[in-house]
Design a protein that fits this description.
By secondary structure, the protein is of the alpha/beta class. The protein has a single domain, classed as TIM Barrel. The protein has a 5-stranded parallel β-sheet, sandwiched between helices. A 4-stranded parallel β-sheet has the order 6-7-8-9. Helix 5 runs parallel beside helix 7, helix 8 packs parallel to helix 9 and helix 16 packs antiparallel against helix 17. The longest helix has 19 residues. Zinc ion binds next to strand 1. The site of zinc ion has 6 residues, from strand 1.
């Protein structure tokens, strides 16, 4: 039976979530609760969770709101709660594996320093995994608006935590600032230390930013990368190297990268042989979780059961999950596809 895919099927499809940010994955109720406790006054947009008021954000407004939400996270217990709830939400969405992206410099001032902050995140991830059964691993991300030396320091710290749940090294924040070449040394340190390179590119900037990121940072995956669809040669380069794009449809629409969900170029990328994995990026701000991205593929792109199974398979094979965990998940996706 390979007919209609119901909403329940979208949840039961086994998947991995490979592009989710720490603050951006907070439950709205937790944001409100923590803000009350910390005595933080939130911007009105963050208090109101009525989806009808959500509009295209644009990057500067998005960044202001993200920073506002981040301000409620104060203590190690706040981070433990947050990461535990994220893992619970993954399990409820049928996700078995989460690679959570964290830029520790944005939180270090609350927790002491970057090393202490990373310790807090690693221990929270391990506790969340034990409690929920969802594998939780961390991608430590450098902030591209900060100087490259800071990224190099962060890469050395990330490598020290490679045995404690850190699997990747990322590069986030406003893509229009900080050219990829400046961060080549940081990414070399991370790769030499056994971490996978997972920078953002090709979201706010075009296909050329993806080409330069491939050349400079040797990524295993690209955060977003959707604008690679503007250039056949760049897509061929991703396909040849087996570099997956972490496509986040709701995020693309909210930030004005795509005119609507149907315009997110997932079909174009897949037709060119580029592996695509679906992710939610920042559900707190975009009002759209992991299952919603699969729903968009079904409803706005006309993706079939086989197509959705292919996307879920890619999320397993392009994750850092151990081979036995991936094999079990792939077998279960086969079962799901048979219906
Ligand atoms: Zn992102």
């Amino acid at each position: 039976m390979t007919g209609e895919v119901t909403d329940a099927d979208l949840i039961s499809l086994p998947k991995a979530h490979l592009h989710l940010h720490l603050t951006g994955g907070m439950r709205h109720a937790t944001l409100i609760d923590l803000a009350d406790r910390a005595g933080v006054q939130l911007p009105p947009r963050l208090v109101d969770d009525d989806p009808d008021t959500w509009q295209i954000l644009g990057w500067p407004r998005f960044q202001r709101l993200y920073d506002g939400a981040r301000g409620v996270l104060r203590t190690p217990e706040d981070f433990q709660r947050l990461i535990y709830e994220m893992a619970e939400d993954e399990r409820a969405a049928g996700s078995r594996w989460l690679e959570l992206q964290i830029a520790p410099t944005g939180y270090a001032v609350r927790l002491g320093d970057v090393v202490t902050a990373t310790e807090v995140f690693c221990s929270a991830a391990a506790a969340a995994e034990t409690a929920t059964g969802v594998g939780v691993r961390l991608i430590i991300a450098a902030n591209r608006t900060r100087p490259p030396w800071e990224a190099e320091l962060l890469a050395r710290i990330a490598v020290r935590f490679a045995a404690h749940g850190v699997v990747g090294f990322g590069l986030s924040n406003d893509e229009r600032r900080g050219i990829p070449e400046e961060f080549a040394k940081a990414f070399r340190i991370a790769r030499d230390g056994g971490l996978a390179a997972m920078p953002h590119a090709g979201e706010l900037l075009g296909a050329d930013s993806v080409a330069r990121t491939i050349a400079a940072l040797a990524p295993a995956r690209i955060g977003h990368g959707v604008r690679a669809a503007e250039d056949a040669d760049v897509m061929a380069s991703l396909a040849e190297r087996g570099i997956a794009c972490e496509v986040c449809p709701a995020s693309n629409v909210a930030l004005g990268v795509a005119a609507g969900l149907a315009a997110v170029p997932i079909r174009t990328l897949e037709a060119a042989g580029v592996p695509v994995v679906l992710a939610a990026d920042d559900p707190l701000l975009f009002g759209s979780g992991l299952v919603d991205q699969y729903r968009a593929a079904r409803d706005d792109l006309g993706y079939t059961r086989a197509d959705l199974a292919r996307l879920a398979r890619a999320s397993a094979t392009h994750s850092t999950m151990p081979a036995d965990v991936a094999a079990a998940m792939l077998a279960d996706i086969d079962g799901w596809e048979r219906g």
